[in-house]
Design brief:
The protein is α+β, with helices and mostly antiparallel strands and 435 residues long. The protein has 3 domains: 38-137, Beta-Lactamase (2-Layer Sandwich); 186-275, Helix Hairpins, CATH 1.10.287; 281-430, Heat Shock Protein 90. The chain is 54% helix and 14% strand. It contains 9 helices and 10 strands. The protein has helices at 4-36, 40-75, 96-101, 143-179, 194-243, 247-274, 288-305, 324-341, 399-409, and strands at 78-83, 116-121, 127-133, 284-287, 309-314, 319-322, 347-354, 358-364, 413-418, 423-430. α1 packs antiparallel against α4, α5 (194-243) runs antiparallel to α6 (247-274) and α6 (247-274) packs parallel to α9 (399-409). The longest helix has 50 residues, at 194-243. It is rod-shaped. The model is unreliable at 105-112 and 387-394 (pLDDT under 50).
């Protein structure tokens, strides 16, 4: 019995058989209890022996025989009147052996030989009435009634087994397909019970795994593509250090390419950390308003060197719950992106507001913005709005991707839209306990 079908069917049949045995046992028990307590059958037998003895004493053998004949005709049983030793008072035969085998108080409802014998004694002990009858129902008389029940139970068990086994089989096949590499395999169960909950949990897990694996594959392809250019330039610079007349300039160029490659690797490490296990991040109350002031102060010299300015508008106390260092890197990447595209003489606005349920941070520059059709891809790793920009002329295209993943780890959201002019990036983070 290795299948649910067989197990449920067998258990249903066994249950039905046990119920039949229980019915027989209860019937026997109730019959015996009724006899011990002087039930209707015993009272009827006592009345019959009294009437038979009275008929015998008043009218002799003929009157007694006539009374017993009437009992036999109406009750469909054989009645014999004997003396205390078992001699039949009608025909003189010895009934002692039959009296000895008769049940003194009760008879089993389903006797083995198909007939039951009962005896009743007159109050003075002189007369005994022997009753021999065939029960109206035998054990096998119930079998035809139980067979349809057995069939119904078998069908019900089969339907129950099908209702349980079929969705489990579909779920097993979906798991097997997913295990073989078909990441689109789903159970798609509509059940509302525990099996449906298990199927939905698998679908949710499979979706997360598919998203992670797809992102990793895409990231690997992007990394491979991004590493080609700096490695090619490094090879060229290394060759220059060996053959160029100005080896110091060639070495400086090589150092510059190494720094760019180190920056790319560092950015990739930030992506990896941002996608790490959320449980591994240390959660604490982060004073977001203070963190933003520190970042504004840190970026003030860089902004001034580019001929623009940074304008902060920060509410005094805004606290969120999260990883302070991860939030710092995310917000710094957004500010860095705004500063990089801010034209000279313009401002980079950083506005922090506290709403009832979250903190809203807005960073806006007055640069060229992003084409509308490219906005959905702005947070994609290695995406650059200007296709002519590469690692040598600008960023590596990971800053906003890192920011998005860090904010999502804090159950927040980040979005971007054109402000005409410029780009506006909005970050929402749930407030901390002491906000």
């Amino acid at each position: 019995m290795r299948t649910i079908y067989a197990r449920i069917l067998v258990w249903g049949i066994v249950t039905l058989g046990l119920s039949l045995i229980a019915f027989v046992a209860i019937s026997m028990n109730l019959s015996a209890r009724s006899a011990r307590q002087g039930g209707p059958l015993r009272n009827l037998a006592a009345l019959q022996v009294h009437e038979a003895a009275a008929a015998y004493e008043s009218g002799g053998t003929a009157a007694a025989a006539d009374y017993l004949a009437r009992l036999n005709r109406f009750l469909r049983a054989e009645h014999y009147l004997t003396d205390a030793r078992g001699r039949d008072l009608i025909d003189g035969e010895d009934r002692s052996a039959l009296l000895a085998s008769a049940a003194p108080k009760a008879a089993p409802p389903f006797p083995a030989k198909g007939r039951i014998a009962m005896t009743a004694t007159s109050p003075d002990g002189r007369y005994r009435l022997l009753i021999v009858a065939t029960p109206p129902f035998g054990l096998w008389d119930f079998v035809p009634y139980y067979l349809p029940i057995l069939l119904v139970v078998a069908v019900a068990c089969w339907l129950l087994a099908a209702n349980l086994a079929s969705p489990l089989g579909e779920l097993a096949r979906a798991v097997e397909r997913f295990g073989r590499g078909d990441l689109s395999a789903r159970a798609n169960s509509r059940r509302r019970d525990e099996i449906g909950g298990l199927a939905r949990a698998f679908d949710l897990m499979a979706g997360h795994i598919q998203t992670l694996l797809t992102a990793e594959r895409q990231l690997l392809q992007d990394v491979s593509h991004e590493l080609r250019s700096p490695l090619a330039r490094m090879s060229f610079a290394a060759e220059l250090t060996r053959t160029a007349e100005d080896r110091d300039a060639a070495a400086a160029k090589l150092r510059k390419e190494i720094d760019r490659l180190a920056h790319l690797v560092g950015a990739l490490l930030q992506v990896t950390r941002a996608e790490g296990d959320p449980a591994a991040h240390r959660l604490e109350d982060v004073l977001l308003s203070e963190l933003l002031r520190e970042l504004v102060d840190d970026w003030a010299p860089e902004v001034a060197s580019r001929g623009c300015r940074i304008e902060p508008r920060i509410q005094p106390v805004v606290t969120v719950s999260g990883d302070g260092e991860l939030l710092r890197r995310a917000i710094e990447n957004v500010i860095s992106n705004a500063v990089r595209f801010a034209p000279a003489g313009t401002a980079v606005e950083t506005i922090l507001e506290k709403n009832p349920s979250d903190a809203l941070l807005t960073v806006r520059d007055y640069g060229p913005g992003v084409p509308h059709e490219l906005l959905p891809r702005l947070f994609t790793p290695f995406f650059r709005a200007d296709a002519s920009r590469d690692g040598a002329t600008g960023g590596v295209g990971l800053g906003l991707a890192i920011a998005q993943r860090a904010i999502h780890l804090h159950h927040g959201s980040i979005s971007a839209r054109n402000a005409e002019p410029g780009l506006r990036v909005e970050i929402r983070i749930p407030l901390g306990p002491r906000a």
